[in-house]
C-alpha cells in the first residue's frame, strides 16, 4: 500500500489509526466487515499485518522488509 498526498492530509494518521496508535473520533475501521476500532494492537496484527513507520525503524541496519519480517515473527509462534 502507498499513500500520496500533501503535508497534513492524514498519510501518517491513517495507518496509525488502523493499528490503534491514534484515536478514532468518528467513523469506523473494518476489515472484511469486522471492526478494528477499539481492538488491542495484538489482535489487529494477529492476521499478519504490521506497521513500521519510515522514520522510526527500530533496527536501522535492516531494510524495511527485514524490519517487517522481524515485527511479525512473534506472530508465527502463536
Amount of beta strand: 5-15%
Physical arrangement of strands within the biggest beta sheet: 1-2
In which range does the helix fraction lie?
25-40%
Shape: globular
Termini gap: 26 Å
The total count of helices amounts to 3
SS elements, strand count: 2
Number of domains: 1
Low-confidence stretches: none
Biggest beta sheet summary: 2 strands, antiparallel
Q: Provide the structure class.
A: mainly alpha
The SSE order reads HEEHH
**How big is the Rg?**
14 Å
Question: Whole-number average pLDDT?
Answer: 76
Account of the 3D structure:
- The chain is mainly alpha-helical.
- The protein has one domain.
- It contains 3 helices and 2 strands, in the order αββαα.
- The protein has a two-stranded antiparallel sheet with strand order 1-2.
- The two termini are 26 Å apart.
Amino acid at each position: 500500500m502507498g499513500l500520496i498526498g500533501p503535508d497534513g492530509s492524514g498519510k501518517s494518521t491513517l495507518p496509525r489509526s488502523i493499528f490503534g496508535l491514534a484515536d478514532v473520533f468518528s467513523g469506523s475501521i473494518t476489515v472484511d466487515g469486522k471492526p478494528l476500532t477499539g481492538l488491542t494492537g495484538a489482535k489487529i496484527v494477529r492476521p499478519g499485518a504490521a506497521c513500521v513507520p519510515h522514520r522510526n525503524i527500530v533496527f536501522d541496519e535492516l531494510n524495511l522488509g527485514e524490519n517487517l519480517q522481524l515485527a511479525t515473527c512473534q506472530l508465527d509462534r502463536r
